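User: I'm putting together notes for a lab meeting next week and I want to include a structural view of one of the chains we've been expressing. I don't have a solved structure, so I'd like a prediction I can at least talk through. The sequence is below, exactly as it appears in our construct file.
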Amino acid sequence: MKLQSDPHSGANTITGYGDGYVEINQTPYRHAVLLSSAGEILEWPVKSYAELLACNFDQIVALKPELILLGTGNRQHFPKPELLKPLIEAKIGYEIMDSQAACRTYNILVGEGRQVLLALIVDAT
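Assistant: Thanks for the context. Below is the predicted structure for the 125-residue chain, given as structure tokens.
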């Protein structure tokens, strides 16, 4: 599915997504990513929701976001509280949803000028 974005905004936006990929600024990625409105698009070493570890959230905490959108793949999965402990201790807000919903929500929040980090798991097809 293609998404509309403002190419003149200068912000990193999701321009499409589907089974096995996410498209950021019209470039496809076939792996998990950490994405904010400005800055680098970082590879996140998470192959699937089942492989998610607490240390994966340490990488997120180091980026010091105010809010995280966690896209858990094709289905919404809620991580065990011990996995989210690094976020809770750092007082970082988070929302958990399937990856497609996380992409749409990320674009809306970025369009509103919010400082949000998208931690997105891309399920392999």
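A couple of points you could mention at the meeting. The first strand starts at residue 14 and ends at 18. The first helix runs from residue 54 to 62.

User: Perfect, that's what I needed.
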